[in-house]
Backbone:
């Protein structure tokens, strides 16, 4: 997984609460076989009109926010279904950091699984950054996970807090899988013990469906 | 003396690999089920990281969500929609690349993932089973711990055969007493969801117990575990007993000979200890349960077939009132209207909730020597090729066909709008599936959830009908 250490980029303002997973990615885009390419469908209904023409007033359709890597939004960001297609769409669009007063649980966890940093800040601080993001001259900010700070264009820094284990995993670019694979010996030992305790849990041959006659 | 433990805690403890602190642990997985919609990105992740599948032989894949339910002798090429075909082709390619056991579309074993696992004897008591689908809870009917996972988690299981999990709280749902005539497992679970709400069991694993549960056959037990998720539960479980063992004996991958005896002896230790404590207990009198039917767009929006839709004007809370109004408008039901008698367009008998042979028998018993009402389209979609073959051996196909029902091939079908079987906008459907969300069975479609017998009664009368009135 790509580590997340320090990101200097354009922040886009999205002063909307309860942005749900259906807004982030409508269900009809679930028929995909890739994590990639979903950026085109991000905020589909808000970004495009019925004729698939870009709505010029939507921030992500305007300069400089077209190239945003940070999103500033309001309460309960990412609510709705558990589909990971929602963070994938943001990531594919180029957004790696979302700043909001609160996030939906599952979405929050899914961000870390995809190398993205969700930052929780107080409502007043989010307002300050929202105002910054709204002006092209102040829309560039730096999110530093190492220091746990956000630096505004004019240099002022705002601190944030984050679970230390999650922070470390993002900094190291270690995903959950790498962490679990480090327990290889314990997994193997458990498997040996379980094979003795419940030997009847047998594996299947890859082509079992061709050979297995109806039982 | 050891602390008394629940069934859930026993299965959890026997699968804990490492305690990670913070209440998290690494849990060993016995069976990982895959299907075409949520798995492609998990395989991409493996490839990108250069990882292999740790235990392909403990994995099983089948395509069910996107598949057409007729004319599919051509296999992949029978799938007309290019995106659906690509999803299924991708699953086939990934299984071939990673040596994962796969049940092809043309196999007599193909079916809904949650129906074929138990049929093959892969779903065993005391095991941990996961799948990237929330209705994995179905397998809990055997005393397995079974739950749905996300795509990153599926990738994690593929790579490690384990999962990082937090222990859930426990909820006991006791249903005591005898069910009335015409009342089924589906009515029990709809009643439970109506009583505790769709968020009622959030953060919990439900264990169903009590003599009304003991009296259920395995099909019924799978139905109520299937819908545990609709009450917000992580999983639903039922302690294994003689009914479970009798059902499993002789299945292709169930233990055999002396190993069977050893297995049964171990499975008998799984039921919750007498003094085991639960975080929450809900008690229900089976005799009070009636045939149920949903009126809204959430499974908790449910009442008895003799009941009425709510009147939003009587809702004090404005949020609640707005929600009821929205549901009634979507469903095109007048405030306070009686549910019995509502004319329906479509009947869907199928899904992982109610497409086992017992479900089809119950529906056929109502359909026998009757006719689907004029203007109504009725589909029977067996949950697997095996169920279909069994139904044909018993002559159920001709009962349904001569009554005017369609008899189709196995798949998720009209449970959700990802394949050709779907509702048209505005159509009203009597459905044996598990979700009645807006657009779930097709954009603009209106779903009423009910039991197979109730759905058959709706088919032959053309209206929502109390099946007890058709008793012969
Ligand atoms: S039948 Fe419906 S609920 Fe069951 S697995 Fe298929 S789509 Fe999901």
Residues:
């Amino acid at each position: 997984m790509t580590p997340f250490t320090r990101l200097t980029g354009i922040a886009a303002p999205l002063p909307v609460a309860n942005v749900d997973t259906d807004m982030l990615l409508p269900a009809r885009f679930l028929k995909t076989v890739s994590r990639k390419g979903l950026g085109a469908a991000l905020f589909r209904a808000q970004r495009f009109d019925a004729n698939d023409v870009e709505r010029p007033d939507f921030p992500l359709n305007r300069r400089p926010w077209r190239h945003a890597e940070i999103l500033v939004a309001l309460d309960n960001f990412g609510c709705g279904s558990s589909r990971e297609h929602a963070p994938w769409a943001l990531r594919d669009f180029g957004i790696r950091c979302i700043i909001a007063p609160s996030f939906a649980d599952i979405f929050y966890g899914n961000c870390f699984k995809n190398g993205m940093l969700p930052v929780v800040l107080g409502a007043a601080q989010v307002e300050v950054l929202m105002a910054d993001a709204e002006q092209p001259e102040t829309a560039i900010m730096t999110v530093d996970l190492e220091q746990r700070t956000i630096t505004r264009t004019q240099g002022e820094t705002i601190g944030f807090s984050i679970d230390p284990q999650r922070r470390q995993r993002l900094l190291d670019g270690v995903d959950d899988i790498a962490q679990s694979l480090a327990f290889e010996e314990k997994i193997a030992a458990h498997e040996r013990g379980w094979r003795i305790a419940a030997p009847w849990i047998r594996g299947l041959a890859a082509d079992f469906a061709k050979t297995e006659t109806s039982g | 003396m050891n602390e008394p433990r629940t069934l859930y805690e026993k299965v959890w403890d026997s699968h804990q690999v490492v305690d990670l602190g913070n209440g998290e642990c690494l849990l060993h997985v016995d069976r990982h089920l895959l299907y075409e919609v949520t798995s492609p990105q998990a395989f991409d992740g493996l490839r990108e990281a250069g990882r292999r599948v740790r235990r392909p032989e403990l994995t099983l894949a089948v395509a069910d969500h996107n598949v057409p339910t007729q004319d599919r002798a051509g296999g992949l090429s029978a799938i007309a929609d290019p995106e659906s075909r690509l999803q299924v082709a991708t699953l086939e390619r990934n299984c071939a690349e990673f040596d994962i056991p796969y049940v092809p579309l043309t196999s007599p074993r193909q079916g809904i993932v949650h129906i074929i696992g138990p049929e093959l004897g892969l779903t065993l008591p005391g095991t941990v089973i996961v799948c990237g689908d929330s209705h994995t809870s179905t397998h809990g009917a055997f005393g397995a711990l079974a739950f749905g996972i996300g795509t990153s988690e599926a990738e994690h299981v593929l790579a490690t055969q384990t999962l990082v999990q937090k222990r859930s709280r426990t909820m006991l749902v006791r249903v005591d007493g005898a069910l009335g005539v015409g009342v089924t497992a589906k009515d029990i679970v709809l009643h439970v969801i109506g009583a505790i709400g769709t968020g009622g069991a959030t953060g919990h694993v439900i264990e169903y117990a009590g003599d009304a549960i003991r009296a259920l056959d395995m099909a019924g037990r799978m139905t109520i575990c299937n819908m545990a998720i609709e009450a917000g539960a992580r999983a639903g479980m039922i302690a294994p007993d003689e009914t479970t063992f009798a059902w499993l004996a002789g299945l292709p991958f169930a233990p055999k000979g002396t190993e069977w005896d050893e297995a049964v002896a171990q499975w008998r230790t799984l039921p919750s200890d007498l003094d085991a404590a639960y975080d929450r207990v809900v008690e229900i009198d089976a005799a009070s349960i009636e045939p149920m039917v949903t009126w809204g767009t959430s499974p908790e929006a449910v009442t008895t077939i003799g009941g009425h839709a709510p009147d939003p004007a009587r809702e004090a809370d404005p949020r609640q009132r707005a929600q009821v109004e929205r549901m009634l408008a979507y469903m095109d039901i007048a405030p306070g209207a009686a549910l019995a008698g509502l004319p329906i367009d479509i009947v869907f008998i199928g899904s992982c909730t109610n497409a086992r042979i017992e479900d089809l028998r119950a529906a056929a018993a109502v359909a026998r020597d009757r006719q689907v009402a004029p203007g109504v389209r009725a589909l029977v979609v067996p949950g697997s090729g095996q169920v279909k073959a069994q139904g044909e051996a018993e002559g159920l196909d001709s009962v349904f066909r001569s009554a005017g029902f369609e008899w189709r091939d196995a798949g998720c079908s009209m449970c959700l709008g990802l394949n050709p079987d779907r509702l048209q906008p505005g159509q009203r459907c009597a459905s044996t599936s598990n979700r009645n969300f807006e657009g779930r069975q097709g954009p603009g479609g209106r779903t009423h959830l009910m039991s197979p017998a109730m759905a058959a009664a709706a088919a032959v009368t053309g209206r929502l009908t109390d099946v007890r009135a058709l008793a012969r």
Summary: Residues B 64-65, 112, 114, 133, 135, 351-352, 412, 415-416, 433-434 surround iron/sulfur cluster (CB under 6 Å). Chain B has a mean pLDDT of 95. Chain B is about 30% helix and 15% strand.
